[in-house]
Amino acid sequence: MSSTIRCKGCGALLQKEDPNKVGYATSYDHVYCQACYKLFHYGESTLHFHPEDLPSLPANAVILMVSSVLHLDLLFSYPVYRYQPDAKFVYIINQMDLLPKGTNLDRLLENIKRKAKSLSVPYEDLILMSAKNPYDIEHLKAYLKELHEPHVYLLGVQNSGKTTLFKALTKDEDALAMKKAGLTQEALKRAYDGMMIYDMPGLYQDGYLHQILPYSLYKNLIPDSMIKPKIYQLKEGQSLMIEGLIGISFYGYTINPIFYVDQMIDIHKTNDERVKVLMAEKEKHFKVYVDRYEEKAFKIPTGKYQITFADMGFMHVSGPGLVKLIHPKGLHISLSEALFND
Ligand SMILES: Nc1nc2c(ncn2[C@@H]2O[C@H](COP(=O)(O)OP(=O)(O)OP(=O)(O)O)[C@@H](O)[C@H]2O)c(=O)[nH]1
Ligand SMILES: [Mg+2]
Q1: Atom 12 in ligand 1: which residue has the minimum CA distance?
Q2: Which of 91, 100, 157, 176 is in Cβ range 3.0-4.6 Å of 9 for a Cys bridge?
């Protein structure tokens, strides 16, 4: 039987019966369930729970659809507006501090608006911001006040920054905002300036890093500070290896990939024959690798395109050309139009 007390880190109801189920705690006097306690104090994540149900949303609400700038390929892939068409939908493109200074933000916004229009996505506004920037938070507070609705919901995929925003808006100090995907288990709610703010569990995205690697490894592959793009000049048939995870072979004269990933990620040049050899001996060559891989190819039309590597980041390529990939089985890798110039 669970209690009526909630873990302040993830929102789960505390229970003392089953250590393998969400909300387990040895005492109801604890602020955190055992999983949050270990994560917060020791940076350790042993169990993974992922909540899936979409809550019922009232009409008199602002729904903040939070997306990381690293996950823009999925920005409009959850049509939540179909469940509650009368609410006000505001798209927050978060973690803008990760993009290099000088990125053309007007162009980015223009392209996102074009994408929304082509998909007929209804929205009140699109906001580019960083939950870590106090100025952006003040701006968001003033904006929410103007919208004048009693309920504000934070929705979006894992690790997009919902809890970070919730904490910044409400001054909640106990909720946990960390790179552990699927951390928030149940809605955390808190009153702020006449509104009720709800931090929701992440909308579950298949194929992200947490499905193929343990937390201790994948947390190092997700960028947390400004990205310095890495540019490669490649000849036909040359390849790049990203750790022991992804082998990419390029065909085409103008393809020149530009990577937007964490500074510490190891990328090295090789050739397409060698990729398979390296992967067959992955334990010998790499610190980060998986057991099972699959292959994929993208034909790149003329123009600038983005290939997104799950929640790790993305690369820009210039077509026409062909990109062949060997990557962990099930990893979400997509091709979309590039949304900004390098
Ligand atoms: N650089 C940067 N990092 C951010 C920003 N917002 C959130 N983060 C980081 O992103 C990671 C995930 O943040 P959370 O707020 O826990 O994400 P969430 O959407 O609540 O994730 P779930 O509860 O798992 O669905 C944490 O390491 C945050 O510090 C931001 O604006 N900039
Ligand atoms: Mg959260």
Answers
A1: 159
A2: 176
Last residue of a domain, one of 163, 188, 205: 205
Positive or negative, the CA dihedral 227, 314, 299, 109 is: negative
DSSP code string of 215-258: HHHHGGGS--S----EE----TTEEEEETBTEEEEEESSS---E
Closest-lying ligand to the alpha carbon of 182?
Answer: 1
- The 3-state DSSP class for residue 163 equals helix
Both 23 and 117 in one domain: the answer is no
Quote the pTM value. 0.91
Q: How far is the CA of 248 from the centre of ligand 2 (A)?
A: 32
**Pocket of ligand 1, beta carbon within 6 A:** 94-95, 97-98, 130-132, 156, 158-164, 177-179, 181-184, 201-202, 224
110 phi and psi, to 5 degrees?
-60, -45
Residue 320 lies in a domain: yes
Q: Whose CA is nearest to atom 30 of ligand 1?
A: 95
Q: What is the pLDDT of residues 95-119, one digit of tens each?
A: 999 999 999 999 999 999 999 999 9
Domain count, the chain: 3
Q: Which domain holds residue 95?
A: 61-205
Is 200 found in the same domain as 69? yes
Angle, helix 162-170 to helix 134-147, in steps of 10 degrees: 80
**Predicted local distance difference test score (pLDDT) of residue 212:** 94
Pocket test for ligand 1, best of 52, 53, 97, 159 (most atoms within 8 A of CB): 159
Q: Give pLDDT tens digits for 2-34.
A: 678 999 998 889 999 999 888 999 999 888 999
Give the rounded distance of the alpha carbon of 223 from its chain centre. Answer: 10
Among all ligands shown, which has an atom nearest to the Cα of 52? 1
Is residue 208 predicted with pLDDT exceeding 90? yes
Q: How much is the mean pLDDT over the chain?
A: 92
Residue whose pair of structure tokens reads 């062949």 in the numeric block: 324
* Closest ligand 1 atom to Cα of 157: 25
Q: How far is the CA of 223 from the centre of ligand 1 (A)?
A: 11
